Amino acid sequence: MLGKNLYFSQFVHDPALNSINVLGPLGNVHVDTLLMTWSCMGLALGGAALATRAMVVDGPGGNSQAVVEMLYSFLADLARGQIGQQWRKFFPLIAAIFIFVLIGNFIGVGPWKAFEHLSWWPKLPTGETFELASPTTDFNVTAGLATIALITYLYSGFWAHGRKFLRVLFASPMSPIEWMDVIIRPSTLALRLLAVITADELMRGAFLLIMPALLPAAVMGFELFIGVIQALVFALLTSIYIGLTVAEHH
Questions:
Q1: What is the pTM of this model?
Q2: How far apart are alpha carbons 72 and 101 in whole angstroms?
Q3: 195: how many CB neighbours lie within 10 A of its CB?
Q4: Which of 30, 43, 211, 232 stands the most exposed, by the fewest C-beta atoms within 10 Å?
Q5: How far apart are CA 239 and CA 220, in angstroms?
């Protein structure tokens, strides 16, 4: 991540697998991104499993139940406000996007620099120390999330309006603009998240060089705040796109 990925070809040198890298670095598998992405999913599923064990039907429940209920209410209000009456059908996706992006943004904000001097820490082919970063600094991740949002956006149109939505895309005099909109919306989702989180990572690295004892703590706090905002923006815009598709095309 941050342009310094650990490639699959660094760990596996089997000639039979050369086809996996037919495009050079652009076609290689980013092992670090996969591991961080799986870590995010594991944290989300593990946290949900632990929280649901402690939940009760009667009474206020514990702290974990309060957090889960607060998160549910917040995301339900977001989806309901943007999508309308059909919000429940798309709520699991909106919630999953918010939680995954939030954890992905947070997981890179850690004291990983403290481990880089250890012998077992991975190195790049150039010998340079690998920098662990959020998976959302990899365009493959943000583009994948945006693709899911795009597929849901198109599906919601066909689900709500059937063939009428198809006629809007192909037969309307505004169809070129409609098609540009289909491309621009997921592109802006992917690039916005990538650019902001990458800028945060670079800013922290710069402050570590300037004053490693004090300034990074404040910067990391700011990164956590930005991580929440970006997760909210991604989930909110996805909800808005679905809501517009469900409501506007008749």
A1: 0.84
A2: 16
A3: 14
A4: 211
A5: 29
Handedness of CA 118, 123, 129, 135 (dihedral sign): negative
How do the pLDDT tens digits run along the chain, 250 residues long? 555 777 766 666 666 555 555 444 545 678 888 889 999 999 999 999 988 887 887 777 788 888 889 999 999 999 999 998 889 999 999 999 999 999 999 998 877 777 777 788 877 766 777 778 899 999 889 999 999 998 998 888 888 877 777 666 655 555 566 667 777 878 888 999 999 998 888 887 777 777 766 666 778 888 899 999 999 999 999 999 899 888 754 4
Strand partners, 129: 123
Query: Cα separation of 82 and 73, whole Å?
Result: 14
* CA atoms of 33 and 30, how far apart (whole Å): 5
Alpha-carbon gap, residue 29 to 247, rounded angstroms: 40
Rounded to an integer, what distance in angstroms lies between the CA atom of residue 81 and that of residue 91? Answer: 11
36: buried, middle or exposed (CB in 10 Å: 19+, 13-18, 0-12)?
A: buried
132: left (phi over 0), alpha (psi -120 to 50) or beta: beta
Q: Where are the alpha helices (DSSP H) in 109-214?
A: 139-161, 163-171, 175-210
Backbone region of residue 84 per phi and psi (left: phi > 0; alpha: psi in -120 to 50; beta: other values): left
